[in-house]
Structures are given as C-alpha cells and as structure tokens.
Amino acid sequence: MAVIYSARTLLLCIAYIIIGPTIILINKYILYDLHFSYPIFLSCLGVTFSGLAAHTLVRLGFVKLQKKDDITNAFWVKKILPICFNFASSLALGNLSYLYLNVGFIQMFKSFTPVLIMLVSFLMNVETPTNYIMVSVVIISVGTAATCSFTPELSLVGLAIMFSAEILESIRLVLTQFVLQNLKFGVVEGQYVLAPPSALWLLLVSIVFESHSMYEKKAWLIIVDNPFIFFCASSLGLAVNFLSYYVIQATSSLTLKILGGVRNIATIVAGVLRYGELVDYREGVGYTIAFAGFIMYSMAKSGIWDDYKNNNLKIRHSNSSSSGNIIESLSLLSSSSATATASGIKDHIIIDGGSSSSGRHTGLSNSGGILTRDEEAAESLLILAGIARST
Known about the structure:
The chain has 391 residues and is an all-alpha fold. The protein folds into two domains: 2-302, no CATH class; 311-390. It contains 15 helices and two strands. The chain has helices at 2-33, 39-59, 73-96, 103-109, 113-123, 131-149, 156-179, 187-209, 211-216, 220-225, 227-250, 253-275, 281-301, 304-343, 373-390, and strands at residues 350-352, 355-357. It has a two-stranded antiparallel ribbon. Strand 1 and strand 2 (355-357) form a beta hairpin.
C-alpha cells in the first residue's frame, strides 16, 4: 500500500512539473509561431474553459458547493470582482510579455514575485514580514538584479510589462488572502466562483484592444486551422489547478512551491532547446541565488524556521529545568548525607594499621571500596548535571 501511495505521489509531482512548461511552450507557439498576437483573448479562452468545466461539474451533481450561502451579490461585486480584475490583468500582461521576452528570462524574473508580495502585504497591513522573510527577500533581490544585468538584448518594454504583471499578481494574491481567508474553496468551487468574472474582464479588455485587429486579420481562422493546439492551451490550465490541489494533499504546500521552482528550471531548459534562447552563465548564477532565496522564503512562509527556533528554545528550557531539578536534588541529597554522616559517623571510620582516623572520609564504604546507595545516586546526578551544562 505504501509503495502504491509513493508511486502515486511521484506521478503527481512529475505531471505537475511537465504540464506547467507545456502550457508555457504552447502559448509561446501560438503567439510567436502561429502569429496569433492576441494574448488577452488567449488568456480569456483558458479562463473560460475552466469556468465552463466547473459549472458543468456542479450542474451534473459531481460537485456540491459548500460556500454557496456565503457568496452574496454584494460580496461578489465588492470583493470577488476586484480579485478577478487583478487576476485577469496579470494573466493578460504575463502572456503579452512572451512577445517581448524569452521564455527563460520570464521564468527567472518570476522568482522576484515573493519580494512584491511582501511589499504589498506590508503596505496593505495584511502581514508583517519576519526576519527570515526579509533576509530571503534580500537574497532574491540580489539574484534577480544579477539576472537582469547579465541578460543579453533585454527589452525594457517587455520588462515593464512583466513587472506590471507581477505587481498585479501580488495584489491579487494578497487580496485573496485578505478577503477569502475564511472561504477555503476547493478546486472546482474556486473556479466556479472566480473564473466567470475573470473571463468577463478579459473579454471586455480584449474587445477594446484586440477585436479590431482580429477582425481585420481574420484571426479566428488560425483557431479553426489549429483546434487541438488551442484546446490544449485552454484545458491544461485547469489541469494544473487540479494537480496543484492533489500535490498539496499528497505532500505539502512547501513541496508544491519547490516543485514550482523545479518547473521553472525545466521551462528555461525547454526554451533553450526549442527556441535556441541564450542563457549567459552569469545569468544562471543570478537565478541560482534568487532560487536559493525563494526556497528560503518558502520555508519561512511555511513556518519551518519558526518551528526550528521554537524547538531549540523548548530544548534549552527543558535542559535548564532539568539542571535546576538536578541541583535541587543534589542539595537535598547533600543535606540527607550530612545528616546520615553526623548520626552514624562510626560506620565511616577507616581502620589503618590498628590506628583510627575519625576526621577523614574517603568516599569508600565498609564493604571493600563499593559506593553506598547514596553515593551512587550522587554520582549519577553529577554526571547528568554535567551533560545538562554541556548542552
């Protein structure tokens, strides 16, 4: 049974790592190779598919809504819509950046997201960063700065678009934490609530900025000629959401974050192999530093450093208490031994060559140099006290 569970967990992790880069490469292929230069509409297709799938599962009775009564019309307008607006905007700008930047650099730059999340959380008074988070953020910043400095042919327009996308994503994540912290949606229920308004935002923006060009260039013919490619681009996003949920169930949220970092590395390699993108070794060093900071940040957010610190404090407190108990026991034992010695001093007189010496106690008993019961206890307590002090 354990072997089956381990194999299932391994397959989930592998699938999560593979599908993520696959979506990115498919989107890049659609935008770059098929010349379908409409990232907002492409994003809308994916979100719309997720919403339709979620509503279908609910309507057919496969999934029951647990938080339906909590989503009132006022709550939906005031809180859900702003979150979906930020989500839709970050998704659209993220896809737009692939027209200006290479796949590898985008994945490297995404490691900067925790820095923005920390800043937004602090400014919105949602969360105060701990010392471990601040240190990890500094490491990420240094690594990201090095990555950007050594990237050849960096597009400033693309960098500005990508930076804007990451800011909006950070705001969306913080708003989600602040607004929906008591509404723990499942995968389907989350898509059921969040996907429709997100698709609506994307569709409206696409109509304003892309519809005229799509009509003139007859862009819908590209979709008609490549239906399978567009279906994969639309459906794999929902698959990632399900895989994320099941990976967390099988492992932990920290494992998911680390797998996300591994997935980014796999995407960088795929970009080099598929599009011949150049990655300078100094750029790689910068990303390695940023990735190390990201792992440290993930561990800090998961509470691992705090648990380690608390456990050490507990051990020290326990050892301190043990030392105090030992010293107290030694004091009581010394008093007891002194009383016993005073009352039975004759039993401890050492006879040497027919002459007695009543003023000298050597620690040996009458029975051939074997420690008495009180002396054994004192010896054991001294050893324990020494161990406690050395700890």
